[in-house]
Design brief:
Elements: E1 2-4, E2 10-15, E3 24-30, E4 38-43, E5 49-54, E6 59-66, E7 74-82, E8 90-95, E9 101-106, E10 111-115
Antiparallel strand pairs: 1-2, 2-3, 4-5, 5-6, 6-7, 8-9, 9-10
């Protein structure tokens, strides 16, 4: 699960015990990729790509990877940081339910479709 915040960060949370849902631990905090509030985040269908859209007109794509550190089971690496994805705030990003196509919309009144290449 990811939660975006107005402090320009996204926090990745993992359920500690899937047999007893509801206890989550923050396993990663993403910061420094956006310079204004993050308004939206979305996982792709496979759960290995995360997109964020923010008030800095940017979209950032991260890849979720297993970590070699047992204390931090997963890590996110930045695949793409499109600084000028829109001419104004990016309000929403959403992945297609079965393909790596990302839709975004912004205050520039544009809706854009992006073909996300996961092997970048």
């Amino acid at each position: 699960m990811c939660i975006r915040d107005s402090d320009n960060t996204v926090r990745l949370w993992m359920d500690e015990n899937p047999k007893d849902p509801g206890t989550f631990t923050c396993i990663s905090t993403l910061s420094g990729f956006h310079i204004r509030s993050i308004y939206s985040c979305s996982w792709n269908a496979d759960g290995n790509l995360l997109a964020t859209g923010a008030g800095d007109d940017a979209i950032t794509i991260f890849r979720l990877e297993k970590s070699t550190d047992s204390m931090v089971p997963y890590q996110l690496s930045c695949l793409e940081n499109s600084k000028s994805a829109h001419d104004n705030d990016v309000n929403c990003v959403a992945f297609h339910p079965s393909e790596n196509i990302l839709a975004s919309c912004g205050d520039d009144k544009a809706i854009k479709l992006w073909n996300v290449i996961a092997d970048a």
